[in-house]
Amino acid sequence: DVKVTQSSRYLVKRTGEKVFLECVQDMDHENMFWYRQDPGLGLRLIYFSYDVKMKEKGDIPEGYSVSREKKERFSLILESASTNQTSMYLCASSPPRQTAEKLFFGSGTQLSVL
Amino acid sequence: QKEVEQNSGPLSVPEGAIASLNCTYSDRGSQSFFWYRQYSGKSPELIMFIYSNGDKEDGRFTAQLNKASQYVSLLIRDSQPSDSATYLCAVNAKTSYDKVIFGPGTSLSVIP
After folding, report:
1. For residue B87, what are the CA distances in angstroms to A53, B58, B94?
2. What contacts A8, CB < 8 A, 6 or more positions away?
3. Which DSSP state fits B18?
4. Which of A13, A87, B24, B92 has its CA 20 to 30 A from that of B48?
């Protein structure tokens, strides 16, 4: 089975802190994604990556950056956390481009910014 | 107009009944359609996908696609309390890159 592991299940940070959310997948998937999920808004794509060192902005990239130095690891960075970034963050991976839509999700990180 | 729309619910059905979940999308160029199930406090998991007009059955689940009307639905036959979850409709939007767009989800409650 595909395993997508997010480093923290719950995280509490203060406004202005730099926050790192880590995600590792063990199925050699090319594609990795970061979503945030908010009530009533569904899942919104923040950033994605189709290859090592490659990144593309999703729908709501403002205030975030990403890093993909190794194929299995995709990190989401909040440069200066703000209260409106309090959310559930979900990492996902998928097989090669032709079947990129079939997403496998990690268990999520509930981030609270105070 | 939102790209993928779903009734937020909650949708309540008695155990053993058919649950019908609906989704509409705005991009006529969409090619691939997915249903994810998300239990409370858990991450989404893919349960069905459909690419062609018509019905696709998998056990108690049937996905239905009508591209002309731009809607996709999920039927759950013989609903069980364990089916109580939020169901997310997702659509592949063919833009400059493959991107999956999610609807807000429909909460389903199956009453014993």
Report:
1. 33, 16, 22
2. A21, A22, A109
3. P
4. A87
Q: How far apart (Å, rounded) are the C-alpha atoms in residues B49 and A11?
A: 33
Following CA atoms A113, B4, B10, B12 in sequence, which dihedral angle do they give, to the nearest 10 degrees? -150
Calculate mean pLDDT across residues B63-90. 96
B98 touches chain A (CB under 8 A): yes
Q: Tokens for A114?
A: 């105070």
Residues 6+ apart with CB under 8 A from A44: A35, A36, A37, A38, A58, A59, A60, B102
Cα separation of B68 and B75, whole Å?
Answer: 19
Which residues pair with residue B22 across a beta bridge? B73
Neighbours of A14 (CB within 10 A): 11
Q: What are the structure tokens assigned to B82, written together?
A: 């364990």
DSSP A29-56: -SEEEEEEEETTTEEEEEEEESSTT--E
Chain A from 59 to 98: CB within 8 A of any B CB: 90, 97
In chain A, which residues have their Cβ closer than 8 Å to the Cβ of B42? 107
Q: Among B36, B3, B47, B5, which residue's Cα sits nearest to residue B23?
A: B5
Highest mean pLDDT among A2-6, A63-67, B5-9, B29-33 belongs to A63-67
| Cβ atoms within 10 Å, residue B81 | 10
User: What is the structure's pLDDT at A101?
Assistant: 66
pLDDT for B104 beyond 80:
yes
